[in-house]
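Standup notes
- DV: blocked on the single-chain target, sequence here:
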Amino acid sequence: MSAELDQFDDPVVDASPDLADETLIRHYVSVSQFLSIVEGEHLWLSSVGGFTDSLEGAATDMGKDAFDDMDELIDEAKQREMADETTEALLDEASAENVFNLRKTIRNHCLVNCWRLGEDAESYKESAVFWNSYVPGGIGVAIESRVGKLKDLFEQHIETEHASLTPSVGPIGMVGEVSYIDFESAYDLAGHPARLLCKHDGFAEEREYRLIVNSIGPDERAKAMVGANVDAPFGEYMYVDPAQLIDKVYVAPNAPQHLMESIKSILGDRSGFDSDSVQWSELYRDDPTY
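- DV (later): unblocked, structure below
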């Protein structure tokens, strides 16, 4: 992550600025999710609080060590003269437990939409793991787009839906490639939305690209810092123009033939798509010789 993550004059920070806009990406979805995108014209961003990976947004071992000394660090800070009245007020209520509560609250207020990166603008390596994980039973598709298209739509979403939000920690929106880290040695970013661009290195095959909405505001931050429970959003919809987002749709490799025909029919009624817009996944489709 090469962006200066604490410099967020822009509403959206690109944490992977060297990633070419033409890089292929795919989003694996069920048929109902596909219809939601094409006919409902929106993507869904989920709260990280509902993710099954408990390490999403969690502290690394380095962060855990720092947390053990948190009360001592807070006491030391209270002894120093603070010019900032807001900082003084926060320190009066600060404790290790409240800092932990704040970090957890920030995590749960981050909303994420996930895609898988291709190798470049021309090639994409199929993933059986993704088909099996996101399209169980083979009743679903992978939507193919480009990094630049997705970024443009996300920036429009942030400017339209979150223009009045004043972020208290990090930027309002972030996009970027996920880094896969060793939790025993990596620097700790817990408590910052950028932490959600890091995952355990056991997931490295995912090659994930993420959109992140940081929805926590000053009021929620202040409540969390005094130990209060703060309700987190379940998620939110992001408007998309399907013709602007979607380049191609790949039907699951083990899907029945009628699903291919149904997907073609759905897209055939919309402008911007033709018969070549829908294809079979290339996984398992070769005629093998035994």
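- Follow-up: The two ends are 46 Å apart (CA to CA).
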